[in-house]
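job 3f2a | input accepted
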Amino acid sequence: MSTAARSLFSFEDTFVRELEGLYLPWEAAEAPDPRILALNAPLARELGIDPDALAGPDGVRVLVGAVTEADGTTTVAQGYAGHQFGGYSPRLGDGRALLVGELIGPDGRRRDLHLKGSGRTPFARGGDGKAAVGPMLREHVVSEAMHALGIPTTRSLAIVATGEDVARETMLPGAVLARIAASHLRVGTFQYAARLKDASIVPRLADYAIARHHPAAADAERPYLAFYEAVVEAQAALVARWMHVGFVHGVMNTDNVTISGETIDYGPCAFMDAHDPATVFSSIDEAGRYAYGNQPHITQWNLARLAEPLLPLFADQQDAAVEAATAVLNTFPARYEAHLARGYHEKLGLTGEPEDGTLGPDLLDLMHLQRADHTGAFRALAAVLRGDDAPVRALLPGDEARDAWLARWRAQLEAQGRDAAETADAMDRVNPLYIPRNHLVEEALAAATAGDLDPFERLLEVVQQPFVDRPGLERYAAPAPEEFGGGYRTFCGT
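job 3f2a | predicted structure (494 res):
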């Protein structure tokens, strides 16, 4: 790395220095002709990096992993285990990714710079270690949409075309994603640590995770149990937010559950059009394990897997440790339901404690029965308060049930005594108009793969302001056309 590149990035490497055994030093594959496809200038500035300099030759070299120990950091492939679709794999790890280092932004936050698609590592398990342009751009646009929706998420700093093709069903242009995350510590990291012969690694990892993500736990009477409780709470809040916007992660394996509470790994993910708890998008989720409606239950199951390697830290006796972990884990449903209800309460324009706690669930049942568009139905409610029932009537054509629900809703709104226009405006601030609609994502990625980035850039611009109604963007607010079909499937990109 040149002197100019070193001035762009001042890396730290606490993960490498403190957690030997949980990674393998490794170098990125050479990118023969790297070229920026997408650069997240606002995020770069948030990190204290000049976007123009980042887009220059020195910045691009870092974004494809062309760094050495002389640059103050060591690129490593992180080790982790995981339950994948319920089956345990003791050695997964970064098969096509590298941790470049940690950045401290002007706000004092420590964040990872991590590369995806940077070449095979010893964890590759037979894959080529590369990534194609389409899946990397998907992660860029969907993670930025999630950020704009206010949902904790990893973010894409840049997508760099590598200048070489990768073999999938056909030959596709290759790319590397530069991802920013609070960290890449996962449930699977703890599972991997527990299988190592070094008995000190799990407590060291827990101490590191506490200091980095949940420092209040360090002052608790039982710090490790408080840490576990903090992760349970973070995941309960996160998944409730997914449910509010109709997001389906698609691959909720334990190696994709972060300790920080951020959404990670936008592989076979998508947003629902028609509301249906059974919605599945992932091409490999044939049994529907990670369907939209299963996400809270799977999260609790994944959190149980986190408790297992932590048990020796909870109590000296196995029975006491299991009892303590179970007590915390059993709080998940109530935590999740509280976050879920609070969010739907806000989406319905209600303040204070609801007199009728069934309003939200009953609306979802009505939407499911009518196959109403999840995003559109919530957004249309504000129009009712402005005197326009037409959007809701179009989305929920069943007159009797719809009108009965609307009457109950209006009664609660009237009881709170809030101005209707003020309520409608508040609802528009939490009910998005624009999400990454699946047909538009596919259209943009197909064009980008063929060399035309305009549809991608336009879609990205739209979803970065999801709540602001703008003339001329009607197609971005509309559900998929009928011919798009209900059998839409997404793929992990490997």
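job 3f2a | DSSP finds 20 helices and eleven strands in the chain.
job 3f2a | closed
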